[in-house]
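Task 17 of the worksheet. Students: predict the tertiary structure of the chain below and write it out as structure tokens. Keep your answer in the requested format; marks are given for formatting as well as content.
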Amino acid sequence: MIRQMLPQQVKAKLDAGEPVVLLDVRQPEEYEFCHIAGSRLIPLGDLVRCAGAVELPTEGTVVVYCHHGVRSLTGAHLLMQAGVEDVVSMAGGIDAWSQLIDPTVPRY
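Model answer:
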């Protein structure tokens, strides 16, 4: 089962200084339009091809996000299959982040 985390929970982890890797699985043009500062872009199609080869920090939670939280479920599942243990999907995606955490992040 894929664990999910609400944007407020992700923000709390970041604010507490906990190690968090933000992984955006949207397309490059979506990422260019808006993204969460400090996130890393690996489009879902690329992740499908190379999930086992993705180098991620071994400490902390990998938080996968997309636009609304659907693609991120697949991304989190792929990473779990590749052996990443502490991985979650951010419920509601960057759209929820914009609404609940940072209204300066443009919505589309």
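Marker's comment: The radius of gyration is 13 Å. The chain has one domain: 4-100.
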